[in-house]
Write a structure and sequence with these properties.
Elements lengths: L9 E4 L8 H9 L5 E2 L3 E2 H5 L3 H6 L9 E6 L3 H12 L5 E6 L4 H4 L11 H14 L4 E8 L7 H10 L4 E8 L10 H9 L7 E4 L5 H11 L3 E4 L8 H10 L9 H19 L1 H8 L3 H4 L7 H9 L3 H11 L1
Parallel strand pairs: 1-9, 2-4, 3-4, 4-5, 5-6, 6-7, 7-8, 8-9
């Protein structure tokens, strides 16, 4: 059972496209992330053996426990994709029924499926039945303000064999706006019919908020998304506060060191040009709150050589 390989309470890295690649995942794991997810991968691309998608699902043993996350809107392609990724031996397969982006949800994938719950359950059951590895689901509380069926949907997902449910406390229509509603996540967790672990997601941006929401809503785990971008240190801070210790504050030297490590690992993995593009999402987050960072940021964003970026980062120290 999946719950047997997870801690009693998990603090994990939420899957994010072009963020939770293996280079960043390994850093988050070193800083204490209990569970990892790959970037979401198109089931259609997987069954066509698209090289970029195959690369996205690669991982190393140090990342375990890890899920490969897949998305799609077809029973046939999702089951075929699940069977394909099973051969990579992840600890579990996660179905993305939560992404609200138009290019995903607009085609009936991700949270777009929340407009058709019977289809969601049918496809999920087919995926569960097609593989031997555990299957989990990440989803949202509903499609829009008038359609929040997550409590009943959670029961249905459990009934077809899902072994872990991660719930983002917003609807598809809300995207990432407004405050996440954790009351419905708690309602799922407190439902006596539910036996599988329930993870909550949304708005967790500090270790203090993590412990508050853990205690207030009683979930089995919390996934941290945007607050972990360029801030892998948050996982160690969460571990410290769970032990009733004062969370440490990473030094500027440590932030520079980890940012350089991240950049060089990306260069080795995807090449210099692609690494430079992808890392632009991280610089401001690595150095959030650092005084007089703006001039450095402008130079980092404009530079097109990794060697020169390293030199700029070392100036920050």
């Amino acid at each position: 059972m999946l719950k047997d390989i997870l801690p009693e309470f998990s603090v994990g890295l939420s899957p994010m496209d072009e963020i939770t690649n293996k280079e960043f995942r390994r850093i988050c794991k070193r800083y204490g992330s209990d569970v990892l997810f790959t970037e979401f991968v198109s089931s259609d691309a997987l069954i066509r053996d698209v090289e970029k998608s195959i690369e996205k699902i690669s991982f190393s043993s140090v990342e375990r426990p890890i899920a490969i996350q897949i998305f799609g809107n077809s029973e046939q392609t999702l089951t075929m994709a699940a069977q394909k990724v099973e051969k990579f031996h992840p600890d579990f397969i996660d179905i993305n029924w939560g992404c609200p982006m138009k290019k995903i949800a607009g085609k009936g994938s991700g949270s777009g499926i929340l407009n058709d719950i019977p289809k969601m359950i049918q496809i999920t059951k087919a995926v569960v039945d097609s593989v031997k590895v555990p299957v989990s689901v990440k989803t949202r509380i509903g499609y829009d303000e008038s359609n929040k069926p997550i409590v009943k949907v959670a029961e249905m997902l459990q009934d077809v064999g899902v072994q872990l449910l991660s719930i983002h406390g917003r609807t598809k229509a809300q995207m990432y706006k407004a405050e996440a509603d954790w009351s419905l996540i708690a309602e799922v967790k407190n439902n006596q019919r539910m036996k599988i672990p329930i993870f909550g997601n949304g708005d967790i941006d500090s270790p203090q908020k993590m412990i508050d929401y853990k205690n207030r809503y009683g979930v089995d785990g919390i996934l941290i998304g945007r607050a972990a971008v360029g801030n892998p240190f948050i996982f160690e801070q969460c571990k410290q506060i769970l032990k009733n210790n004062t969370p440490y504050t990473p030094s500027l030297e440590e932030k520079v060191m980890v940012c350089k490590e991240h950049l060089l690992a990306m260069k080795d993995s995807v090449g210099e040009d692609r690494a430079i593009v992808l890392m632009k999402k991280f610089y401001s987050r690595y150095f959030l709150g650092i005084q007089n960072f703006k001039p450095y940021k402008m130079r980092l964003m404009e530079e097109n050589k990794v060697e020169n970026i390293i030199n700029i980062l070392e100036e920050i120290e």
